[in-house]
């Protein structure tokens, strides 16, 4: 499967997704590693087997082995962090924010890629997982690494398009199973 096959699967009512996918993948202005690491991490975070099945081979072909592994690690670490920190933030008792986290997060200690790429991937995954605390932390880290707002916004756009693609294609698969309802 390929990026083209994924775009072809988008129903006509969601044709803007095709254009948006082209825009973020082909015209977003990110370097290959940052782009495809973001696409992979977001495909994992979107939890769609079909989208991941289509995009993971594309990402693997365009990334070094270290970058491919680091992007997967960023998605895994953020799957834990986003739920944990979002929940602590949502609880009305602020004392939870003062307790020791007690969760391991060492997978990205020496990722073999620039810290700015890992922060970018983590930021994009946090957008999909809707963790405001993590979004703020990774956005601050990126700004501290001199990544401009326009570049950071590309991560938001990739996350939005990948999530929308996953939602749409998974919904279509369910509705197809219902006899086209």
TrEMBL record:
Listed Pfam families: CMD
Catalytic reaction list: N(6)-[(R)-dihydrolipoyl]-L-lysyl-[lipoyl-carrier protein] + a hydroperoxide = N(6)-[(R)-lipoyl]-L-lysyl-[lipoyl-carrier protein] + an alcohol + H2O
EC class of the enzyme, as a word: oxidoreductase
EC number, UniProt record: 1.11.1.28
Disulfide feature: 131-134
Carboxymuconolactone decarboxylase-like domain mapped to chain residues: 94-175
Gene Ontology molecular functions: disulfide oxidoreductase activity; hydroperoxide reductase activity; peroxiredoxin activity
Cross-referenced InterPro entries: AhpD, AhpD-like, AhpD_core, CMD-like
Gene3D superfamilies according to UniProt: AhpD-like
GO BP term, example: cell redox homeostasis
SUPFAM superfamilies xrefs: AhpD-like
Active site positions: 131, 134
Keywords: Antioxidant, Disulfide bond, Oxidoreductase, Peroxidase, Redox-active center
Function, in words: Antioxidant protein with alkyl hydroperoxidase activity. Required for the reduction of the AhpC active site cysteine residues and for the regeneration of the AhpC enzyme activity.
Family stated for the protein in its record: Belongs to the AhpD family.
Assembly information from the UniProt record: Homotrimer.
Alphabetical list of NCBIfam families matching this protein: ahpD, ahpD_dom
Protein name (Swiss-Prot/TrEMBL): Alkyl hydroperoxide reductase AhpD
Natural source organism: Streptomyces niveus (Streptomyces spheroides)
Gene this chain is encoded by: ahpD
